Amino acid sequence: MTATATSTPPPAAPRVSGGKGGRTRLSFPVVLLIVAGALLALSAVRAVTGAEDVTSAGQISAALAMAVPIGLAGLGGLWAERAGVVNIGLEGMMILGTFFGAWAGWQTNPWLGVLAGVIGGMVGGLLHAVATVTFGVDHIISGIAINILAVGFTTYFAKLWFNTGEAAAKGGSPKQSPPADEITSVTIPGLSDWLHSIEKHHWFFVSDLAGIIGGLVTNVSLLTILAVILFVGTFFVLWKTSFGLRLRSCGENPIAAESLGVNVYRYKYMAVIVSGGMAGLGGAFLSLVTSHIYNEGQTGGRGYIGLAAMIFGNWRPGGLAMGAGLFGFADALQLRNGGESVHALLLLLFVVLAVLAAWKLYRKSFVQGGISAVIAAAVLVWYLATDTVPTEFVSATPYVVTLLVLSLSAQRLRMPKADGMRYRKGQGK
Predict the structure, then answer these.
(1) Three-state DSSP class for 21?
(2) Is the pTM of the predicted complex or chain greater than 0.90?
(3) How far apart are the C-alpha atoms of 180 and 111, rounded to whole Å?
């Protein structure tokens, strides 16, 4: 009698997103078409409504400044969640970045302030990693706790450090720091003036394109250039290196990753600490580039908006950059122009919702298509019946855009499979 030998199959390799089994990603030509379509739509809105500032160089420059801290916070979230750790504490890590960045920037120089802000965010990331990775605390609870601790810490030490002695004499108070020196900005000579001259003609599409490019090459902070390098570097490290493959495997299937020799704890710790550093850098940008001082409540929820931008970008740097740009544009619009330009964008919102309704009806999603059509009609009536929008709505524009974008993009999202799950070493044995 012959016994049948059985063998245990080898452990499956960790499946990481972005392969053939994942959802189809947008190709570069398609992304360019989408960007060109968005620019055409903005040009049409400017021409129809007369809201010239919608595509002006000043608006784009302000949007870029608003987008950088949001993008850096989202980049921090991307590092953590690709390793399987949800980082709701990005807001608190940004707060630590604003505080320590402004404090060190005032005491020494702004670049040491940038370093201090990064270190402050990394300390917050380390706390989050200890709680979630080592002790298995729920990721959401740990993140909320860090947000609360960061607010309490900075409130206490702002009163202690900024409200006495030399700091008070130089403009410090319990709610703000003395001003720090400015970080150098760069402008491409010749090109900026030439683009500005084209923009002043208000030609359809051409002037709009000149305004957008002009805003990207005029008075650009060196810290903004650093942020762009970090986006490119993140893509290269996480998607083009063996280190990135191992880190992403921890967020997809940590048990399989461990079976292949990956030290899951180490990679999760590194990812969350880097995540905190990115958020801290975003906070330092707010206190050293945007305003040159620390202000209580300065982040204004940008850590959460950064998470929304990351989700909109489907946990990838390119999509995250587009989301951060969109939210930064909305933020700058309400800060610079009040109700006039926001009212003009109601027309653009109507077009987007009408196209979405037509697409849903074509795909036989009658309920969703009908809802989109009703909302589009309501937005059109609102636009035609008014000349401006209430101040309260203007100030809420970035958050409304966040909700709309997430609701419209929800069906195409794919988060890392083990994102937010507790992992204990050896649990697969």
Answers:
(1) coil
(2) no
(3) 10
